[in-house]
User: Fold this.
Amino acid sequence: QQPVQSPQAVILREGEDAVINCSSSKALYSVHWYRQKHGEAPVFLMILLKGGEQKGHDKISASFNEKKQQSSLYLTASQLSYSGTYFCGTPNVPYSGGGADGLTFGKGTHLIIQP
Amino acid sequence: ETGVTQTPRHLVMGMTNKKSLKCEQHLGHNAMYWYKQSAKKPLELMFVYNFKEQTENNSVPSRFSPECPNSSHLFLHLHTLQPEDSALYLCASSQDVSRASYTFGSGTRLTVV
Assistant:
C-alpha cells in the first residue's frame, strides 16, 4: 500500500518552517525520505528506524512513530535550496533484517521556497 | 565513475520499435531497481533484482522486459510500447537490506510516438 503524504504542496518564504507528514496503513519498521529537484534524480535525505528516533541533517529533521505508523519531516528556517518535491518511502519488506524488496513511495509534497 | 549512470538520457521511439535502457552502478550494491515516474503518478516500482535474481515484478506489462547480467548492470528492454508508457524511467541501487538507502540515476526520459 502506498503511504499517504500531506500536504500536497507548500509555499513558504525563506526562513519559515514546514512540516511534511507521511502515514501508512501497514505496520512499519522504517521510513525513508528523499528530495527531488526539478529535472534531477531523487536524493536520499534520511532513514528513520523503529524506535521513534529523530534524526537530523543540517536544519532538516524527522521523527518516526511506529505505533501511529507515521513519520514527519521538519524543515527549519527554510532555505531556497530546500525547494523540490519530498517523497517518503516505505519498504515492501516490513520487518528488520529483510532483504531489499523495493520501496513504495508516496505521491510527494511539492515545496516552493520564495525569497 | 561513481554513482548510478543511466543511458540514454532521452529516447524517442515509435510504437513498433525495440529499444533498451541501460543502468550501471559502481557502488558495490547488490540490489537494483527500475522505477517509472510520470506526471500523474508518483514513483512506481517496476522491478527489483537482488544478486542478479528478480525478486519483484510489480504487475508490469510484458512489453517491458528487464535483464540483470551482473550486480552492476541493469537493462530494461522495450518493445511495442504505448504512448501512455512515456515517462521518466529511473534506476536505483542499494545494499541488500531493507533499511539501506537508495541511490538513483538521473533517469531516461522516454517518449513514445
